[in-house]
């Protein structure tokens, strides 16, 4: 097996801000970057057409591409029908920004897809994602749902219910290993028609858990990235670990991606670390060892 995929890095993983994170991504040997675009300087509302052009040119001047933007708005995802109109609108604006910056992919969490397809939560999520799917499809673009909160089989059933593939998948094998205990290799094969972006991350599951305790659920606590990071570093249920130190079988995982013809980015995400640059450098080297 010889990987030909480009290597990306989540800029926020460095903890240095956007501009310094971009420089560091180039320095560690990445081909591209993924950037959060939900608040602060990267909020679409804070980027004029001129600022977008300048940022795109700056990224290109570093010899980098944008593999995707992250448009994860947290909270309950799209489970709350009363909050969905504003979230859907903002998600569209993030996709508009992505297109202006030269990528057609926005990754996101939509909330845990419930098993009960007759529930009001399922209906609310389906309605919001159908609108987003059609919007993205009209632009030849994708909102990519990150794997992990539910099994691959449940996610596929949900995606199959939408009328276009404008909502697809950002495949994260570690989330599956750490939270649901699902098999990433089988997940790749099951979701192969939908995978448009991937994260490269590793971890281990310490005990069985309710995904609601990690990702939140309407009527329970909302999803918080800070809370997830705290759980991943010192919680009782799972640990995020440097690549190769967890339970993701990367040889089998990369082979599965090759088998389905995936030629997109392998984007490194390191959410928990007191030495992110060192871990990310090693992650780049780890992926390069398969090339």
From TrEMBL:
Keywords: Isomerase. GO terms for molecular function: isomerase activity. InterPro entries: IolE/XylAMocC-like, Xyl_isomerase-like_sf, Xyl_isomerase-like_TIM-brl. Gene3D superfamilies: Divalent-metal-dependent TIM barrel enzymes. Residues 22-289 form the Xylose isomerase-like TIM barrel domain. SUPFAM superfamilies: Xylose isomerase-like (SSF51658). Pfam families: AP_endonuc_2 (PF01261). This is Sugar phosphate isomerase/epimerase. It comes from Paenibacillus eucommiae.
């Amino acid at each position: 097996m010889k990987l030909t995929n480009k290597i990306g890095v989540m800029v926020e993983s460095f903890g240095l801000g956007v501009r310094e994170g971009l420089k560091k991504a180039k320095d560690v040997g990445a081909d591209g970057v993924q950037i959060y675009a939900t608040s602060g300087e990267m909020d679409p509302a804070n980027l004029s057409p001129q600022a977008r052009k300048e940022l795109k040119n700056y990224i290109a001047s570093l010899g980098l591409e944008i593999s995707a933007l992250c448009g994860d708005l947290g909270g309950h995802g799209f489970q709350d029908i009363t909050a969905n109109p504003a979230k859907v609108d903002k998600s569209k604006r993030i996709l508009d920004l992505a297109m202006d910056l030269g990528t057609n992919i926005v990754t996101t969490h939509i909330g845990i897809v419930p098993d009960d397809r007759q529930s009001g939560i399922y209906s609310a999520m389906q309605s919001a994602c159908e609108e987003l799917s059609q919007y993205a499809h009209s632009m030849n673009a994708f909102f990519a749902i990150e794997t992990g909160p539910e099994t691959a089989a449940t996610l596929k059933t949900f995606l199959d219910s939408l009328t276009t593939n404008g909502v697809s998948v950002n495949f994260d094998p570690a989330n599956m290993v750490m939270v649901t205990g699902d098999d990433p290799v089988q997940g790749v094969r099951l979701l192969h028609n939908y995978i448009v972006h991937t994260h490269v991350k590793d971890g281990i599951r310490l005990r069985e858990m309710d995904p609601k305790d990690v990702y939140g659920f309407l009527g329970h606590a909302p999803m918080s990235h800070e809370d997830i990071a705290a759980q991943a570093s010192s919680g009782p249920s799972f640990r995020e670990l440097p690549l190769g130190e967890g339970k993701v079988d990367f040889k089998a995982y990369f082979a599965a991606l090759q088998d389905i013809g995936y030629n997109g980015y392998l984007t490194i995400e390191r959410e928990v670390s007191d030495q992110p640059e060192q871990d990310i450098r090693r992650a780049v080297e780890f992926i390069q060892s398969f090339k």
